[in-house]
Amino acid sequence: MLWHTKIPMPKSSSHTGNRLFLRQFSPAQWLVLTVFFLVAGPVAAQENVSQTPQGLRVAIGQAQVELAVVNADTLRLSVAGDPAVGPAPSTFLADTNGVNAVAWKRVEVQGLVGIKTQAGALLINPQTGEWTLENAQGDRVIPLHELGVLNPQAAGARPEVRLQVGWNGQKPIMVYGCGNGVDSLEQSRTTTRVSNGEAVIPYYWSPSGYAVLAVSANDNQPATWRGAAEGDCVTWTFPGTQADLYLMPAASLKDAARAYSHLTGSAPVPPRWAFGYLQSRWGWQNRAYIEDTVKHFQDLKLPVDAFIFDFEWYTTTPDYGVPPEGLPTFSDFNWNANLFPEPAAQIKALKDQGVHFVGIRKPRMGNSETLAMMRSNNWVLALNKGFEARDVNFANPGMSDWYVKQSADLLAAGVDGWWNDEGEGTYTIYFYWNQTEARAWSLDRTNQRMWTLNRAFSPGVQRFGAAAWTGDINASWKDLGETPTSLLNWGLAGMPYCACDIGGFNQTPTPELLTRWMEAGVFFPVMRAHSTVMATPHFPWLYGTSSLNAMREALDLRYRLIPYYYSLAHETFDTGVPIMRSLAMEFPGDPQVANVSDEWMMGGSLLAAPVLKEGGRRSVHLPAGDWYGFETNRVVRGNSTFELAAALDEIPLYVRAGTILPLAPVVQHTSELPGGPLELEIYPGQDATFTLVEDDGLTLNYLKGDVRRTEFKWDDSGRRLSWKRTGEYAGPDVFQELRVVLFGPQGRVEVPPQALSKSGRVKF
Questions:
Q1: Which structural domains are found in the chain, ordered by start?
Q2: What order do you get walking across the sheet with 688-694 strand by strand?
Q3: To the nearest whole number, what is the mean pLDDT of the chain?
């Protein structure tokens, strides 16, 4: 029997927005469970409040509300019509989320009842359902507001739950971290989806001081949100009859990143080669073409660490014209003998030259016999949209087991990573696809890190070692200008390792465009160039001598920065804070940088402002403090904006005063590291610390503590550098020599080797 009681709103209430919200429902929808809430009142007998293992359950009519502890950072608000409310199982969440070690207590205050942990408190009025979130200091970061509407069985309408999150009254509502569905860091709306190079996720961080992840009953029907016209709330809409809001009190974007990583899972440290330059191509012609390309990189002293192969590595023609029933001759899990007649031997030969093999995979099959078998097992998604009609269901255990077996021979031949393309048939395809690949990987590479590159992502995919790229963009200045915004938004959304098709996928870039894009790519988490088969390959030697030389300098700089980036990757694993950071993350008190995305930070020390427009000119804003021009050693005062002109081989790059920057020698691939002494550059003006992290760059042994950490400290007033090492890792790739360079009024001063004391201390 349906419960159809309405609790009327008093005429004196100021919650006019909720009346407008409810009037959107049809007459048939009024005959279902409608939860309509009053302003807070005193707690009555609380017969409707009971304790659960994770917190408290509150019954309001037939609506079941649970306030629960999730982990040390996160609380959960769940609403459903079923007495067995929350939490809904979700691929978004890490399986380590438990409450055994998290202390919480029941609290009652000012007519509200709730739970409190070290992170904050989640409180509700058990009579009206109005709720609020407080931080650890007791400040309300989500103001008291009505809960929303539960509509589980509406005649002629899709069941859904709507939860309202009170706002701080500012207009317009601006949040961070929803993904790349807009052209700005600050976002005021979202429609959760994945598409070609687009990932919009049900998460945000509010400057009010909290982050929120929404989980619905079905991850393939994720929740979406929008701001009310009045500006007093955000309304989350959950398809189905279950709604879970994971609430994280977080004063800053860094705090939010830490909490969100704890909730959805840490991104493991990628293999070290993935921080090098990755040359992708659609149109590798044959074996000789591959070998000739390697020779060009070597002869021209262009560093490279991987070749990424499109369709042609496993099939002679793309599968776009394959009918839904497939073709009897199509190859899904073999090698194209024109390119790889001896795959294992060829991949070994490439790897001996420092070049790793990454091959494209599609989420579909093309062989007719295989497709018939899969359809008979109900392993194919019922999409019926062109080639997507052949998409497989990786979430099906039988399908996943079969795919693992088919991958075994490919991995045995030496494949180093997968490039997963066109997997947007459902919201979670990339999750289950990566989960399947991880199972196959663990069987062949028992103790090695997996690396994949994906055209979109959903929350949680990062914990498999997945990276993502922004899809099939164009070779245009517009697309170059928009790329940093997408990558920064993805970093804020929990995907720290992201990339683009440097130079643009469609069309051929001009030499200037490709050069500037390559220079910007030095400061992307993953540096990868790619192009369609119809375009001129993005090989530097095909774009003229000036561009070739400029791109070589950019690649050399990328490789010099690898010790810095790799150490930051360990920080990302530990904290969730991405390597590529918006200025808003590093300088939260500076309103001038709240929405800046054409320049960004790499870690906390390097501000990259590459040229993103034709002509070599740009405007640069430096936040407060002193900054050093990386190439000029000139100190520039912060809190300033200026125009500059950069030659084709110049990248505007600034180092924060109070920085210790580790740089490697120039090498042709990461397998040559260490390649000589580590250069430690000190930029004075403030005290500084940096921890250099070294491990074998390939295995999972770092998870067992097999690392070496060198903590460097700079005492600015005493002009003294000191360092201390911990950890037992001592492989051949660790740095054995140290070169120290100090910047200052006298310019670049190198410390004599005899001044470097074995005690780990040197006075300047």
A1: 46-264 (2.60.40.1760), 274-577 (3.20.20.80), 581-656 (2.60.40.1180), 668-763 (2.60.40.1180)
A2: 688-694, 708-715, 720-726, 761-763
A3: 90
